[in-house]
């Protein structure tokens, strides 16, 4: 891939290569002898994988071209719904000997894992089972299901990537060092900038699903990066609110929210030179925290070196406190299942109205109890919280 951002001024070395089936792969190194370039991680992938875009022979013996996932437009909500039926066969809770995110086994000819090297710091690669994918030669055109213009259909172009935070399958993001966390931030920013440059991409979402309760199918510490060919419903809603706020007040909504939380101080759970962590005033989830930069920043590529380093320390502290939020009957902390993701301004629309911030939330409402979405929430999107933002903040302050 061309047009990648320059990392020459950072403490991270990016080394690109290609996996056996043609997917892009990137090492992000912060340790020697790799960060200096004295040595290079293994770049070849010995697996006998066919090219992912090669024609496929069907059950009838007829060869057909590869087709990508499609998405259909819901005229009742204004949302695009990707349909990736091919993901039904993706890896699900593999055993310790078949972990596809672990480093390659030393001395083995090859293993069916995604990382060619026997060790790594951080890696990013295209998902083997993507929900969004552009197939070469397949036109990105809108057609209509059943010939009815009520039902627009498009290829679900875009890109899905995996980011591995550690080579240690037993680790978690909260257990990495500040240096490694800083490398992860660099990888997020680097990939966001590269994906923003892809034709048709409208926004990029870097996120982590953690814990079996969340639905994680691979326990190895990792996250994902989605490049969407549309604005997601959450982003559209925030943009609508932000535009209305600017028209009414002349100010940035997310900036006003941050200043309001700072003025109150009631729900602030962490501060550093460049970042503020707070429980939002209308938190929906049993545990929810937002982390926002003090400076007006649209996305991760726009953050400075100092802001990225500062975030790494604040975020690790927050993650470790969150893993003590709930304790079992004997007082042992219970690792928190959560979803954490970066809300970034879209590539084009809303650059001046939306502001970078991270949202982390958990569905655990008590030890041994999860928040299941009831009929009002699932059916009508009318939320009912099981707690109050102030109680969440008080617990996190108590842990601090």
From TrEMBL:
Enzymatic class: transferase
UniProt domain Galactose-1-phosphate uridyl transferase N-terminal: residue ranges: 69-231
Catalytic activity: alpha-D-galactose 1-phosphate + UDP-alpha-D-glucose = alpha-D-glucose 1-phosphate + UDP-alpha-D-galactose
Domain Galactose-1-phosphate uridyl transferase C-terminal: 246-398
PROSITE patterns linked: GAL_P_UDP_TRANSF_I
Listed SUPFAM superfamilies: HIT-like (SSF54197)
The organism's place on the tree of life at top rank: Bacteria
A Pfam cross-reference name: GalP_UDP_tr_C
Entry EC no(s): 2.7.7.12
Catalytic residues as annotated in Swiss-Prot or TrEMBL: 222 (tele-ump-histidine intermediate)
Pathway the protein contributes to: Carbohydrate metabolism; galactose metabolism
Membrane-spanning parts: none
Family, per entry: Belongs to the galactose-1-phosphate uridylyltransferase type 1 family.
Name the UniProt record assigns to this protein: Galactose-1-phosphate uridylyltransferase
